[in-house]
TrEMBL record:
Protein name according to UniProt: Dihydrolipoyl dehydrogenase
Enzyme class name: oxidoreductase
A Gene Ontology molecular function term of the record: dihydrolipoyl dehydrogenase (NADH) activity
Enzyme Commission number(s) from the entry: 1.8.1.4
Domain Pyridine nucleotide-disulphide oxidoreductase dimerisation: 350-459
UniProt similarity note: Belongs to the class-I pyridine nucleotide-disulfide oxidoreductase family.
Alphabetical UniProt keywords: FAD, Flavoprotein, NAD, Nucleotide-binding, Oxidoreductase
Binding site for NAD(+): G184, G185, G186, A187, T188, G189, V190, E191, E208, G274
Amino acid sequence: MHEVDTHEADVIVIGGGPAGENVAGRCADNGLTVSIVERELVGGECSYWGCIPSKTLLRPGDVLAAASRVPGAAQAVTGTVDAAAAFAWRDYMTGGWDDSGQVPWLDSKKIALFRGAGRLAGTRTVEITGDDGARRLTARRAVVIATGTVAVVPPVDGLRDARPWNNRSATAATYVPRRLLVVGGGATGVEMAQAFHRLGCPRVTIVEAAGRLLAREEPFAGEELRAAFQATGIEVITGVPLVSARRQDGDSTVVTTLADGSRISAEEILVAVGRRPATADLGLDMVGLAPGRFVDVDGWMRATGVDGGWLYAVGDCNGRALLTHMGKYQGRLAADVILGRDVPAATDVVPRVIFTDPQVCAVGLTEQQARDAGLPVRSVTYGTGDVAGAQVRSRASTTSSGSSKLVIDSERSVIVGATFVGPDVQEVLHAATVAIVGEVPLDRLWHAVPSFPTVSEIWLRLLEQYGL
């Protein structure tokens, strides 16, 4: 019988993506010994198959579209996106799916890296199975789960056998299909639809079972994005679910059927309908938790239902907000709790950016969510492209200028939600995040003067709409 190699550390982190790295780094910077267990690549989904490659593939088309809206620059745009060069830049940005460029960061903080699949084996104990044998790690203070999520393939007849793309297939693609069918009108679906259309895919269709794109955001955001997509040749079908898919013609074509009986053929089909937690094989049952589910946590990221407060879950695997920046925030918060610091509970104010053109940026509650929460709501809207800063940047159009909206708690006179649609408006969002998290009264916010001419002038116009 082989002996199990044993190690001990103050903190063990299962998962080396952004959330896990933030826990590990913050704990190590403050004198704790830390071990990270990673079964794939240090840097996680975001670095190799998510945020970084997807935004890298979107960028060439964004630049050309922005230039085409500026008189004088538009005349210089005479070519199209070079897909091969875009893929090469994507490869560079992902390190060629090699994490040797990320590991030195762990070494610099004296964080021990264990490669393999980590599994809870009891209180503060993690067993690792890897290519070089089995190991057992024991944590003196805490174990942190940061394993993220994986793409869902819905139980549609024939879909799995049709070998659909998921986010990993799409962001790691090496060619542009002649026709692409995207199932799902959420962030991943709309971003990848536009990326491949601008990379040279002549026929892109989005099928969304809900009644509109971006169903969790303000209705106007999805409708304005739909109009922009259709104006550039991306077909959008909403309110009709997919019911079957089959590979045909020597596997070169996927033929799909929708609930209304219509059929769509494509060279590739990208399924982007949601994520599930990567927790099925973590040994959660060894500590009294249900495997395969999101790990329920309190406001300090401690797993509920586990005695002793030693188990934490940060990032996508806890289901609170499936966004990289929120996972990193949760990682910092969990580290502070492990370090014994007195910190407030996590905020539930979530900023989010969909990097399409036009962009959709939002934070806090939609108007309907605020009303459902029983808040006394008043909302104001203004055309994003109607401020001078936007007009200086580019010629406005009905399909690119977009709208902006504030959702206001009229009793407290504070903003509880904000949405901005328009080209390159992501930098306007953080001001809204600060205003909502800080509960800045509107009569005080009115004195935060936006520079002229910038797109931030939209803040002044929205407050004027409110009557300030």
